Amino acid sequence: MLLLTCPCCGVTAEETEFAPGGEAHLKRFGPGSADEDYESYMFNRKNPRGVHFERWRHAYGCGKWFLAARDTVMLEVFGTYPAQTTEPPAEIVEKIKARRPDWEGYA
Amino acid sequence: MSHRLAQGGRLIDRNAPRKFTFNGKHMTGFAGDTLAASLLANGQTLLGRSFKYHRPRGVVAAGAEEPNALVGLGKGDRFEPNQRATTTELFDGLVAESQNHWPSLDFDVLALNNLVPQFLTAGFYYKTFLQPRAFWKHVYEPIIRRSAGLGKAPSEKARDPDRYEQIYGFCDVLVIGGGIAGLQAALTAAQSGARVALWEQTAHWGGRAPVDGVEIDGKPADDWVKATVETLEAMENVQLRLRCMGAGVHDHGYVLGYERLTDHAPESDAPRHRLWRMRAGQIITATGAIERPLSFAGNDIPGVMLASAMRDYVVNYAVAPGRDVVVVTNNDDAYRTAIALRKAGVGVQAVVDARAEATGALPEAARAHGIRVLTGKGIRKVKGGKRVTGVEICRIDSKGTAHTDVFSCDAVAMSGGWSPVVHLWSHCGGKLTWDEAGSYFRPDPDRPPLGNDGKGFVRVCGSADGEMGAVLANAHEAGKNASEAAGFKTKNMKPAQDAAAPEAPMEPVWMMPRKAEYDLRMKMWLDFQNDVKVSDIQLAAREGYQSVEHAKRYTTLGMATDQGKLSNINGLAVLSDALGQPIPATGTTTFRPPYTPISIGAIAGEARGPIFQPLRRSPLHDWHAANGADWEPVGQWRRPYTYRRAGETRDQAVNREVKNARENVALLDASTLGKILVSGPDAGRFMDMLYTNMMSNLKPGKCRYGLMCNENGFLMDDGVVARLDEQSFLVHTTSGGADHVHGWMEDWLQCEWWDWKVHTVNLTEQFAQIAVVGPKARTLLERLGGMDLSPETLPFMAWADGQIGGFDTRVFRISFSGELSFEIAVPASQGRAFWDRLTAEGADMGIMPYGTEALHILRAEKGFIMIGDETDGTVIPQDLGLNWAISKKKTDFLGKRGMEREAMIDPMRWKLVGLETLDGSVLPHGALAVRPGKNANGQAITEGRVTSTYFSATLGRGIAMGLVERGPERMGEEITFAGDGDKHIKARIVDPVVYDKEGAKQNV
Asked: Tell me, what's the ipTM?
């Protein structure tokens, strides 16, 4: 059971206090978009072994959504940050690079 | 024969006899015995029959690793199969029975399997039953189900009367294992000030050290154990738990502990088991090591035991495994058993050592005790059936065609070396490394499981770490490092000095003799519990099962309750040999929690019966309960399905309620409907994105029905929206959907349109909502007096705030029944009073409540859809003829893009229609419409399905709705539905609205 820190209220709590929301930083494609874009928005997920960016909601706490950078194999949490961003913050990216020199970077 | 010795037994109390029964036979043991010890003390060496061959089996081990001595414990509601006799503490009145035999333990007909063992080789299920297919179901399966397996499942009528509980715990350092290493690690950590928890799975501290004659600071280990436990007990920052097994190490330091509180004291009224849900900063596993069996022919015959287990029985319980013992080994440790047996007065025929020479301190000590030592030899085969009668010895490097010596004996002690218990280290990703000298896998300290900070959070000490000699220095180091990692400073203290006799290196022997012939190999058991032999693993390798995980599943090696605690390494070694590769190249199978099986009761804890899950109650719940409510679960709510009166069937009650609502005045508790307030300057814009239709142009004071879809375009929820004022909307959702819809709104507001100024609040439980329904609804409400409810002031699809009968109300003129209807919200605290007032005022009018089933029938007669009936997560609004509720003006709303996909505009989609059976009967729920012919897979061709089906009391016949291929284009056509068996039911496609099509009755 993971331990995560909600960046909104600052509480570090067990996974059962949070609800997972899948991959982070998806760009929404609405009416008029190309089939491939819509398909990738809806269905194509990275599902990596290793560094991953995820959506979580502090469902049984402050209720806010936030994002987490995490290693899906070794379970290390590189950091959590507010949901109101379209890409991982620079300091999180730096931290991941330091910990995982082989990481191909956020694309 | 096994028996109790006249003296000794460090764990038993000879002044406290304990009576028990085994297969109905009365026996007596002592307090402190395990069931296995007392069975052996009573001469009971045959304890069960094996999984496939029904071979006689007896006790092999003395602890959690026991594969054979599984028994059914208790009676009736308390019966439990597959309990290990070796970890069951004896108590007065214990009832045990043996397993997997027919008709009796002593005489088992199915032991015939044993005569044709080639019939049941590796993968035999897969091979034997390929053809003919019908044989599987009618011949093979019944036979296998009868003959293979372990204990019987408890009766389906049994209800466990015991209590179980769960508890959350928090500590800085958790030490698992209360042997001397665990005690030392806990002591070191505790002296740093860290909060320390120490768990030991047995009922005793100290582990193996006292049995093995270890000395600490020059004194017997027992003295140090006692003093250390006393020191720890006196420390406020330390929590000690006996009978508490570390079951699993999970992510980020979450550990499950299985504490057996009263298994040994069933008269206690305390909970039986407790599941610890421990959050540990750092974990130290001091879980010890498990001795490995040796693979020689007949190594499963009752009387053959692990050497260490035999030592445990002699020293701890004063139980001798037999009168004459042969010890067979590839290492020095087993000599301790020979010496212990000799000291206890048990005959030791010989120690048979596979190594070319045995000249270490222990073998010399054995010789000094007059014990004969044979080197370079092994057991060719064990003689005996239900018990050992002797052994034949041969040269270790031979094929075993001829014996060199023969001994008459009734017990054999075997030792193939030791394997660290690495399970807990491995559960959460800790990696292992192969130790060539000891021939075992040990934890690789460079690759521990990682915490959320990316640092290792598990350390290992003692023999679990591969330290087979002195362990206290290693344990002290682990305790120091763990408490420092948890942020504490350790004092400059020195650990006690433990000393054991030095041991010469072991020599791996994976098969005895090393070149054994086939007929010997097929009697060499690797996995006693699953009847897997050396020949089975070799066969699997020949057939191409090279991956250890595949070989495991093909042969069943390492499966079932013991999960291969004894068999894994031996099996890996045989597989590696057959594949011609070193053992580390083969690797291990995955270690998964729990370490040993834990009770389902402990996993469930208190969550059973009425507190299985939280129950949500409407403000009118108690009234419903007192007035005949027949409950139906709706999400976590309970809603009345109907209110039965004396002498009524459910159907009669439902029909009465439907007719009353149509003809008179009725009440519905609609409080469970979701009520979400959406407000703010951008509320209109947001509502237009949420709903398929336009909401921003709804006027304050008005209501509008709307549909919500997910991004696939599939219907997710529906309900009526009331515009409260320019900046706020009240959203009604389905009863089950309120929380999800609220979460959905927050998701979009927080993660996509975070610059929009919108606020949402879930008000569901703040209001009681009561629908007053029927032609006389207005008459009733006007009796109560208050606000103007006339159609001119409050027309259909309008709402207004005001007072009725002195209650503060918000009245919505909306109808889900098709009748004149006022849905009235009052503060939740006044709901019951308002309801009581309505029922009192309407008594002479024949007012009555109706439940969810009448609600469904009333709406189905009107052709109104129900989320979850007409929708199933693949249905778009267009399928339900709801195109009128999809805005063409809006450039975007959630689901719009999804609806544009090719499959969504396919004219062949199944669409909503009404269905009318030709004979007036009620269609079965979910029935499929079939048409003649078969599809490519030989299955019936379907062209639709029933989504809602009821008996309509209003029309006096069955009514239904369904989704049918091109349905609306096929009005009047007769189609066929598949009923039970070969039955077919004809139905005509009709308009889904079968009552008051023009809506005159609701709009008055």
From this structure: 0.98
